Amino acid sequence: MKENWKPGNMLYPVPAVMVSCRGRNKEERPNIITVAWAGTICSDPAMVSISVRPSRYSHRLILESGEFVINLVTEELTRACDWCGVRSGRDEDKFGRMGLTPYVSKFMSTPAIEESPVNIYCRVTKREELGSHDLFLAEVAGVTVDDRYLDEKGRFDLSRAHLIAYSHGEYFALGKKLGKFGYSVARRNSGRLL
Question: DSSP assignment, residue 156?
Answer without folding.
Answer: B
